[in-house]
Every structure is written in C-alpha cells, then in structure tokens.
Design goal:
Length: 173
C-alpha cells in the first residue's frame, strides 16, 4: 500500500511539473464563425533581415501542414475559393536575460560579491490568424511565445502546439 502511495505521489508530482506553452486566443464577435467551412493557407515570405534570417523554413512547412491537418479534422475543406484565409507568422526575438548570484558565505559572515551574468536568448513567436475572405479582417487569432531551445522541432511537437491553439476555435462547420 505504501509503495502504491509513493508511486501515485511521484506521478502527480511529475505531471504537475510538466509545462505547456501558453497560447492566447481571441475572436471577433461581430463575425458568425459558423459560416466558415472552407479555407486556404497563405504562406508568407521570410524577410531577409538579421532578426529573421534564423527562422527555420522547415518549421514553416511543418506549421502549414499541421494547420491544414487540424482544420481538416474539424471538417473544414481546403479550397481555391475559400471563405476563410489562414495566415501564420513566425518571428524571432532576441532578448538579453540575466542571472544573478548574491555572493557566497564563508565561515564568519557573508562575503558580498554579487555576480551578474548576461546571456542572449532567442525566443520565437508564432501567430495564427483566420481572415474573412471577403473583408480580409481577422476573425480569430492565436499567439504563443517559446524559447527556441525548448520549442517544437519535430512534426509531432508542432502538431501538438497547433492542435492546442486551434482547439479553442470551437466552431465546426
């Protein structure tokens, strides 16, 4: 009995430590989302700027495939004359993070020698936008940021991220 309790505690602790990406979504209440049943995905050109040059073009392909699969699972049809246009963007933001060490202690007191270390962190941001094909206004929006080192790399990871984002688009045709 004690072993079962310890096992359950470890499983709960491990599950509690798992992190999911935070995804923000919003929709325009002016539009009736139930009218949308066809879509097309418009890809964007990567801007040849230093801040964008490191965007992985294979990641762009994975995201496009994943969006298409996720919408098809929900009953949407890909079309050359859609009533909804899907656009997604990926950007890289370079930030400086800081670690701080407040020194160390020694035998009879505190040796106050604060140390700060600065390092560069690449953070990717992804946004998915569903546009009305007639007005070109955004009717639904999703956004997430993640560190490049821990972000999605394989198709399965991208699928999980996109599925999590599009799951909040609860309207099915």
């Amino acid at each position: 009995m004690k072993n079962i309790f310890i096992f359950i505690a470890i499983v709960l602790l491990t599950a509690g430590c798992a992190t999911q990406l935070k995804i923000e979504t919003d929709s325009d209440k002016v539009y009736d989302l139930t009218i949308y049943n066809t879509f097309s995905i418009e890809s964007f050109d990567v801007i040849e700027e230093p801040s964008q040059i490191s965007i992985n073009p294979i990641l762009l392909q994975r995201v496009a495939r994943s969006i298409e699969q996720s919408l098809a699972k929900r009953g949407f049809k890909k079309s050359t004359e859609p009533n909804m246009i899907v656009r997604f963007y990926i950007a890289t933001e370079r930030e400086i993070d800081r670690t701080r060490n407040y020194g160390s202690s020694y035998r009879r007191g505190h040796f106050d020698d604060p140390i700060q270390k600065y390092y560069q962190v690449d953070k990717d941001a992804i946004t998915i936008r569903f546009h009305d094909a007639k007005t070109d206004e955004v009717v639904w929006y999703a956004f997430s940021r993640f560190k490049r080192s821990t972000g999605p790399k394989e198709q399965e990871e991208v699928n999980a991220l996109i599925e999590q984002a599009i799951s909040s688009f609860k309207v099915t045709p």
